[in-house]
Amino acid sequence: MQLTVYTAPWCRDCREAKRFLAQHNIPYAEIDIEQVPGAADEVLENVGKKAIPQFVLDGKWIQPYRPGQGFLHAEMSALFGVTHP
Predict the structure, then answer these.
(1) CA distance 66 to 75
(2) Nearest to 65 by CA among 78, 77, 57, 75
(3) At what angle do helices 12-23 and 73-80 cross, to 10 degrees?
(4) 0.85 exceeded by pTM
(5) Are 33 and 46 in contact (CB under 8 A)?
């Protein structure tokens, strides 16, 4: 499994996504869209909007949050096969 997470330091949902991954010992590579040239454009090209966080799991783009609802703990737990409290 190869996971890349597109984030930014100011993003609250990004911090929650990284906390979830750390809590479940899920390894990932992080791409800060403010530090990596072209990263924000890559998100826009693949998702249709500059929305973060974004997971790219084995080449498949996944939005791990829902606007107004935050990080999708239950759905991401099921996706990664981990226990959701």
Answers:
(1) 11
(2) 75
(3) 40
(4) yes
(5) no
